[in-house]
């Protein structure tokens, strides 16, 4: 058997070095053929916002890539009106986007809301906070889908509701004439510190609530439990505050 194979004749108009179904090939002198060189593909594109060594995503041409866990830039083009309302509520009207400690900012916002609505009777305040908690479950559930992270740090409606629960005793259990301004201030500080410690430390039932529920309920439940425990502490401290700071709101 001959050890040389003659090169096949090229069809009219066929480029040199192309044969066998169009695969790239080359011939040594004398007509002996060898396999074409390996085709080098361009490396996959890395995500422009990635700092890690791995490939995060490979996108088709002309299609933007967004970091995982973040909504796409220009969210108004990709977020429905309902989702926009849920994002506004879940982030505390944008407080959750502030850098640093968004959970603490959410609790501080709850203090402001509490002071602004302080004329509400204790019973109406309880109903309002319960309604806000129910809305918070829905809003945080939708926001988690938009952010692609169930308990995204920008969601602060849970801290707002939990902090408001901790503040309820300052109205529901206050003396008939209300608390003196100094006692009110001391109560606000007590409720704020108690809730933040419980929310961050997540002892006992707070941690259990965080692990036992999912989606919007899971986002809200640990802060609700932390708020209830903080409210118990505030209720126990309230008589001491009244004695330490006598007087009334009038």
Which features characterize this protein?
single chain, 250 residues, mainly alpha, two-stranded antiparallel sheet, 8 helices, 3% strand
Brief summary of the model shown:
Helices cover 50% and strands 3% of the residues. It is mostly helical.
Please tell me how large the radius of gyration is.
32 Å
What is the percent of helical residues? 40-55%
Separation, N- and C-terminal Cα atoms: 115 Å
User: Pairing-aware structural class of the strands and helices?
Assistant: mainly alpha
What sort of overall outline do the alpha carbons produce when their principal axes are compared? elongated
Outline the biggest β-sheet. 2 strands, antiparallel
Count the DSSP helices.
8
The stretches of 5 or more residues where confidence is low (pLDDT under 50) are 17-26, 44-69, 72-77
Mean pLDDT: 78
In percent, how much strand structure appears in the residues?
under 5%
Number of strands: 4
**H/E element sequence:** EEEEHHHHHHHH
The largest sheet has its strands arranged as: 1-2
